[in-house]
Amino acid sequence: MKRTFAITLILALLLALVSMPLSAQDRWDGSDELDVNPLECMGAEMMDDDGDMEEEMDMPAYDGGMAAMGDMDMAGADIVVVDVPKLIGIGYFAATTLGQQQAAEELGNVSVTTDGPTDANIDDQIQVIDSYITQGVDGILFAANDPVAIAPVLRKALEAGIHVVGYDANSEPDAREWFVNQAEFNGIGKALIDSLVSQKGEDASFGIVTSTFTTPNQARWVSEMWAYADKCFPDLDWLETLEAQEDAGLSFQQAQTLINKYGEDLDGIIALTSVATPASADAVNQADVCEDVAVTGLGLPNAMRPYISSGCVQEVYLWNPVDLGYAAVYILRAVIDGEFQPGDTSVMAGRLGELMVVNGSEVLLGPPFAFTADNVDDFDF
Description:
Layout: H1 2-18, E1 79-84, H2 91-107, E2 110-114, H3 122-135, E3 139-142, H4 151-159, E4 163-167, E5 178-181, H5 185-200, E6 205-210, H6 216-232, E7 237-243, H7 248-262, E8 268-271, H8 276-286, E9 294-297, H9 301-310, E10 315-318, H10 321-336, E11 346-348, E12 354-358, E13 362-364, E14 369-372
Parallel strand pairs: 1-2, 1-3, 3-4, 4-5, 5-13, 6-7, 6-8, 8-9
Antiparallel strand pairs: 10-14, 11-12, 12-13
Helix pairs in contact: 2-10, 3-4, 5-6, 7-8
């Protein structure tokens, strides 16, 4: 009798844990220690006296690194730059490379080569960067697979007098001079949660397909999503976060796992990479659950066009990765020319105009952009 009662009690406790809302669940692995700054809840943005949106732009002190002084002034001189993204061979980083080449052509005194691992492997990425330090280049652009693991080799580059600028995925701040942030982390977090809620309601159940728990931008987006959802939509049911390694096949499988595991209890999938989002949409489409499972996330318009046009996906978010790569080259050039220095609050970036400095040593490209059926055909990347 006692044993039966004990088993019943344990089962009841387990059931209670499973059914707890978002605010009572354990955080996912990877974002526990990250600082968060959730924005105002959907529909509750703060307006100033003129009816314009208020922006709180804190200006902490510069926290980036410094390249060792070289023997010659490189201002205006021809420079050789290597770009080392997370991986090569996917549309997203092909787009950032295109932007870098556009900037180099405009400037006329920059030569940029993209080289990187074929898989999102931090050890391979470190090896590529280290080889270019040995060869000798004037600048390194990077998108980190791991913010901590990549830091030592980037510091080595700075010590060798090589200028270092990050984009897309950051390192530890002192391991590079500047980071081009495609959008504020809390802005991405808010946009994705608001998208889910607008489609499936404030008590929706959802899963996430990400790259890895340690990839810096994905980890920050998830932590900001958690904080914003906990603040604004505490009845959301956060089912599970699955890693997919920036791999299309694995992303498809992980989306299938969510669909098969949770069945009718799954209301949505939020995908956090340009690989995972179309793969998740494909999984939902092939399972014939487009009407039941909303897919939102970060995606390229070309890859998402079939699913948006068919109505299987209502909207996805991103920024222009061509502009992201373009801005990184202009910022590196400005640093080498001495036109962009610690303490500056903005920098000019060619056709993009003036970009603002945020968070000490980050340059903000702009807010996230929604691709929908009304505009997806206007873009080609």
